[in-house]
Write a structure and sequence with these properties.
The complex is a heterodimer of chains A (384) and B (383). Chain A has two domains: 19-256, Type I PLP-dependent aspartate aminotransferase-like (Major domain) (Aspartate Aminotransferase, domain 2, 3-Layer(aba) Sandwich), CATH 3.40.640.10; 259-382, Aspartate Aminotransferase, domain 1 (Alpha-Beta Complex). Helix content of chain A is 39%, strand content 14%. Chain A has helices at residues 19-31, 38-51, 62-72, 90-97, 117-123, 143-153, 204-214, 222-226, 246-256, 259-277, 310-320, 336-341, 348-356, 368-382; strands at 55-59, 80-84, 101-105, 128-134, 156-160, 168-169, 172-173, 180-184, 197-201, 283-284, 300-304, 357-360. In chain A, strands 1-9-8-5-4-2-3 form a seven-stranded mixed beta sheet, sandwiched between helices. In chain A, strands 10-11-12 form a three-stranded antiparallel beta sheet. In chain A, strands 6-7 form a two-stranded antiparallel sheet. In chain A, helix 6 (143-153) links the parallel strand 4 (128-134) and strand 5. Chain A is globular and about 70 Å long. Chain B is α/β, with parallel strands linked by helices and 383 residues long. Chain B folds into two domains: 15-259, 3-Layer(aba) Sandwich (Aspartate Aminotransferase, domain 2), CATH 3.40.640.10; 262-382, Aspartate Aminotransferase, domain 1. Chain B is built from 14 helices and twelve strands. In chain B, helix 4 links the parallel strand 2 (76-80) and strand 3. In chain B, helix 3 packs across helix 4 (86-93) and helix 10 runs parallel beside helix 14. The longest helix of chain B has 19 residues, at 261-279. Classes of the chains: A alpha/beta (384), B alpha/beta (383). At the A-B interface, helix 1, helix 3, helix 4, helix 8 and helix 9 of A face helix 1, helix 3, helix 4, helix 8 and helix 9 of B.
Amino acid sequence: MATTETFPELPLFDLQLDKQDLYAVAQTLRSGWLTMGPRTEAFEDAFAAHLGARHAIAVSSCTAALHLAYLAAGVGPGDEVIVPSFTFVATAAAVVYCGATPVFAEIASRARPSLDPDDVARRITPRTKAVCVVHYAGYAAQADRLRELCDAHGIALIEDVAHAPSATLAGRALGTWGLAGAFSFFSNKVLSVGEGGLLCTDSEEVAEFARSRRSHAMTSGTWERHRRQTDTYDVVGLGYNYRIDEPRAALLLSRLERLQDDVARRRELTLRYRALLADVEGLIVPFEDADVPDSSCYVMPIMLERDGDHQAQVSSRLREQGIQTSIFYPSIHRFSAYRERFPDVSLPITELASRTELTLPLYPHMTHADQDRVVAALAQALAP
Amino acid sequence: MSNWRVPLTDVAMPEQDVQAVLDCLRSGWLTMGPRTAAFEAALAAYVGAPHALAVSSGTAALHLACLAAGLGPGDEVIVPALTFVASAAAARYVGAEPVLCDIRGNNGAGGYDLNIDVEDAARRITPRTRAIVAVHFGGYPADLPALRALCDQHELVLIEDCAEAIGARLPDGRQVGTVGELGAFSFFSKKQLCVGEGGMVATADEDRAERVRLLRSHALTSSTWDRHRGHDPAYDVVDIGFNYRLDEPRSALGLSRLERLDADIADRRALVRAYRARLAGLPGLELLWDEQAVELGSHFFFPVLLPSREERDRFRERLAASGVQTTWYPALHTFSDYRRAGAAGELPRAGEAADRHCALPLSITMHEATVEVVVELVRAALG
């Protein structure tokens, strides 16, 4: 295997950290306090302010944030949560953690591959406890319409904002439209740290619940005891270890300062990609130029017009040219684990999108020459 | 902030550890890559287990161990009542029921022992029992030969909770975590080997290792790292998995610190011996375990016993007033959420030990002189 391994010249994502980021981590390590301390608090405050949310709770991953968000919404055995299938598997897996059933709903179209509110409405039953909307690739889904729909049915709206830490809908930050928003700081994300996530909410109750369950539902932590605020503790429910640690909080806090600049650069590159791709035959480029200024532009998705085994072929031709692509996303309901548990799900638009999507390289320090190379290679790969 | 004269624990962070993390950050590859693979290989060699899987925490390690043990709804898992809550919570994550059992206490040779009482565990076995979670409390090894025999006799899976015990040994030289089918370790900030948040599952069983590897990362058949290295972008999801991955900066830190682990444990043991020599025979204070346990243990914390809860609480208040931070572990059945898992009357020794013990400061930043300071303040607090 090792002999055939090649690192792509143009990877899907690439991460460059600044000196200031390294310094922040080094100072934290040298302080000797590594878990749940002043840096985590400072990052939470800064991120809440960035969003305009009342509470931000940093956790170990977006998966953990989704789990806590569903639990906070009261999701439990016998309940249903409506989720897209055109997303990373965690959106649905966290529903299963709660003992509930994920009910998969359609995306609107390949040109706008976000949850279709009309299809969501059709799937609401008396057992529906929540809807989770994913802001795919960093572009706002119809959170406003979904919010109205959820309010009308008395169910919770959860936002999977893994892709969208700096994006808006009607001027309001994504992640603040529902009961709770779940962010990801995974290494390939817009704001990345390695492994990490965050739950935001305006609800005091949800915030308190998430803080408690993030650390084993203990009534006090090591940090409070170190500061002599309290002595012992009780355990008041079934909690988890979903804590982030101080070095990661310090790195996030440092990188948050440049988030707006990084996103601005992503937007510029995305608009340039869109202009270049407009001349390439055989493609649908999701979303519109007008959406870009409000998006965090996490990835650059394209859809191949032609169906069939074309996707693997184009991906492999690009790989031969040193260009890495990915599929965002295979349909969750088609994975073996989900077919076994939740059979007979049919979502034609989602399935077509999964069969035809390719994600092109995009990262803030990508050059125009890199982009030109990607687009030229793609045009060649698509040529008959 | 804290203004403790002697804090309960402290973390030493030599510059080589800091540089290892910075090198990793400069590389730009932050998740599931070469550093995690190297850390896992080094951990496997250190513990003497064929497989070591790095995960996000000791709790995650216990959860994955329960899954790799095949535990599920309807199963009972025997867990000692004197431990950190994760030992029991992990069973509940998979829908199983933790059945609390008592600790040995002063019930036998070897000094007062805070570890699981194997005879009491045997009494709690029912047809639904599937596993025992053996905790090596504070870094002192539990009676693994007896636990192994009991589990073999009843066809139970033995899960070793080594969250406080990396580097602890059996009399025959084997490391804890290798006698059970699965060993769960923690790299939390206060532990002998610490990275912030982190953990590991050790196992000799190829299938169980594969299951842990799969479930730690959403049961994906290929990882971001595989795809980065040119593997096909397509993947399947073959089970309900989790995000329990450890990232590369933490693996780099763990790998750097692992080099000093044996020396650090030796330092901790020397501090414990210094404490014991000075505290032995003090009226109103009882030492735990014995010299053999001290020799085999890896010394996460150093607990002593006071005559009663009232005296323990007063002792702790006096030490706090003189700037010495201490702690104690509540027994699980006294937590609001665990009252139904075991009544106080059924767990007399765990309840008594929880009321009477007190952990004194212990960290490798301490010196024998620090021990002397603490001992003087202990004497004053007892007086």
